[in-house]
Amino acid sequence: MKNILLLLSFSFVVAMASGQTTSVLFIGNSYTYVNNLPQTFHDLALSKGDTVIFDSSAPGGYTFNLHTTNATTISKINQQPWDYVVLQEQSQMPAFPPTQVATDTYPYATQLNNIILANDSCTETVFYMTWGRENGDSSNCAAYPPICTYAGMQQRLRESYLQMATDNHASCSPVGVAWKHVRDNYPSIVLYNADQSHPSVNGTYLAACVFYASLFHKTPIGATYPGGITSGDVLVLQTIGGATVLDSLSLWQGTGDIPNATFAESINGNIVQFNNTSFNATDYSWDFGDASNSSQTNPAHTYSSIGQYVVSLTAGNACKSFVVFDTIQINNITGVSSLDENHSILIYPNPAKDILTVEIKNKIGNKIDIRFYNSFGQLVISKQTLNETEFQLDVSRMNSGLYAIIIYENNKIVVSEKIVIRH
């Protein structure tokens, strides 16, 4: 299963912004307080450079129904304008028959969501999809056979939590889905306590990874972790926890209001067409990495120089915004070849180590401007000459890597050439 782990890790090539702060209230029961999930989530986020302000109301065995009239729960909802309120139902109830869940769970989920929104309309309710018991729900198996097994119970939990998210225009944190992936592919990782129901330290850490990806839209890979988990297991839990969310964000959050920032691009020479694939957003802000910006949904941008550019998109709505970064490489300027057919210019050696020679076989004009760019599009050498037909550039102190030389004749590009510096 090593290949699966590596494949999942590649889905996080795009780098996200760091240093975010968010506030979260957890409402649930022992599945939330065992191993202190809120604190574990806080510590994980902090190790990634993000800050979580949190509180919780999680009496043992509590249901949504009990929370709707619990003075502590109501008081904590109203104590501040939360960014997120997480709702976790009693572990068995959402797995019961659909008609029973529609009577005993859904109405109280809606009541809690209404209380949350009454406190602050920008708060996002996030339904905490839990996991099936290790060997199914034996106490209710005879009455409802679908939950006699772990797989059957997990499927019912998935269905019910997604339905609650849809019904309440809210989001879902798919801890149970990540849990199933770990069980199916890494059975040696123990997710349960001895009671076959509550989470082990591994299980709680997996839940924290899922919440980090859900609320920050970033991978938990590289975060710190509590004692009792091996480094190999940590990488599995971080990778699966992050990928479960980030590979299917529209499934878990498409029914809510959390904006997602994502885009693709197509490059034609130095012209880049950006395809905005964000959702739950109404406002967009682009930074193309060359001091140019746009607020269009799907802008096209023309770069003036060869180089590497870091592009960012901030997508938001009236309540929240997220930013995503990607790096693009411009390798040529449209209409410019590596050697203009009307002139004979040699640039050698390539790769270069100490001295780079530019030789002009045929004089190409009175004013010649040579510009040397690194892979980030930064100008590192600029030289102007009027009469020289051969000159040398000292590159001995430049870092190894890919560079570009652009030669202008009277402010018109006549040569664009890639150069490798290798020491």
Question: Which properties best describe this structure?
Answer:
423 residues; Rossmann fold; Immunoglobulin-like; four-stranded antiparallel β-sheet; 12 helices; 29% helix; 27% strand
How does the SSE layout of this entry go?
Layout: H1 2-9, E1 21-27, H2 30-33, H3 37-47, E2 51-57, H4 64-67, H5 71-77, E3 84-87, H6 98-104, H7 106-119, E4 124-128, H8 150-167, E5 171-173, H9 175-185, H10 201-216, H11 231-246, H12 249-253, E6 263-268, E7 271-276, E8 283-287, E9 293-294, E10 300-302, E11 307-316, E12 321-330, E13 345-348, E14 355-360, E15 368-373, E16 379-385, E17 390-394, E18 401-409, E19 412-421
Parallel strand pairs: 1-2, 1-3, 3-4, 4-5
Antiparallel strand pairs: 6-7, 7-10, 8-9, 8-11, 11-12, 13-14, 14-17, 15-16, 15-18, 18-19
